[in-house]
Design a protein that fits this description.
By secondary structure, the protein is an alpha+beta fold. It has a domain at 39-119: Golgi alpha-mannosidase II (Immunoglobulin-like). 14% of the residues lie in helices and 33% in strands. It has one helix at residues 14-30; strands at 38-39, 48-53, 56-61, 68-71, 78-83, 92-95, 98-102, 113-119. The protein has a five-stranded antiparallel beta sheet with strand order 1-2-3-8-5, with no helix packed on it. A hairpin with a 2-residue loop joins strand 2 and strand 3 (56-61). The radius of gyration is 17 Å and the shape is elongated.
């Protein structure tokens, strides 16, 4: 997956070590949205995918220019939408036509910005 292998002496090349440390730091901070989840209710898109664990949906946003993200409708009622990590509330509207998130105040956290949705 990461295409990192040891050199003949068994050591990892220094440029790969820094990448692996970055991935490790990101996973330590965001692992809750990855480990123990399954595919979420929203189909994968060019700029976002979803995962789900229990009554929490995690939307992993790779890039967004438009402050509005429109998602297809889902049956469960969304009770809250927050920025993962900071807990900052994100305005949203859920109708029979779908879900719209307003991300204008959301701070991007490259490489992936994660939004946490609670459902019931």
């Amino acid at each position: 997956l990461l295409n990192v292998g040891p050199m003949p002496n068994g050591r990892i090349q220094p440029q790969f070590v820094s990448v692996l440390k970055e991935v490790g730091a990101w996973m330590k901070k965001n692992g809750e949205a990855i480990y123990g989840t399954r595919g979420g209710p929203f189909p994968p898109r060019d700029r976002a995918v979803s995962t789900q664990k229990g009554n929490t949906i995690y939307l992993h946003i790779f890039d967004y220019q438009d402050p509005l993200i429109a998602l297809p409708p889902i049956a469960p009622k969304i009770v809250s939408v927050r920025a993962f990590g900071s807990g900052k509330e994100i305005p949203f509207k859920q109708t029979a036509d779908g879900v719209v998130l307003t991300l204008s105040a959301l701070e991007k956290t490259p490489p992936v910005t994660i939004v946490e949705m609670k459902i019931k």
